[in-house]
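Quick question, first post here. What does this chain look like in 3D?
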Amino acid sequence: MRAKPFAAVMLAAVSLVAVAGCAGNQGSQPQSGDTRFIPGDGKITMFEAADRKAAPAVEGETLDGGTATLGAHKGKVVVLNFWAAWCAPCRAEAPVLKDIAAKTKAGGVEFLGVDFKDRKADALAFERNQATGYPSIFDQPGRIALSFQGTVPPAAIPSTLIIDRQGRIAARALGAVKYNDLLEAVTKVGDEK
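> Answer (accepted):
Ran it through. Tokens below.
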């Protein structure tokens, strides 16, 4: 009879430790096995014009100390990428984003990064190493990602959104984007009248 209460106490203790380990703190770095991390396959979902939702306001201090807003790019197509330095798929897709940003800039496409759940020093090192060529807002607490809840799960990283010229969410990718898929989607949204 004594074994059952002991087993129950041990099970409760193990459960409590497991839950505490997942809770972490804002400065912690989620790992791919972490229950807060949602991996994606990078496939782009396009939304029909009639079904598009307006993007929420996005603004904040950039990693280089400036300020960036989504509203500053009104009338342009904007690619909004959520990333973190600790995220291996983010590092893998960075050259894709950099190249497409450079290739589409002349056509009026703007790129904006949102770094969240990250340490600023790590994010700055990532920016220096990747030299993306576009600004990233430092959003350690993840407030911007939360504002897109319903479109992007707050724990889905990397995530990429394409915002159309009217400020609506035209496409979404959860996970590292593929070069041709992103270029095709950006071009399609950019060609809309």
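Residues 5-37 have pLDDT under 50 and may be disordered.
The first helix runs from residue 3 to 23.
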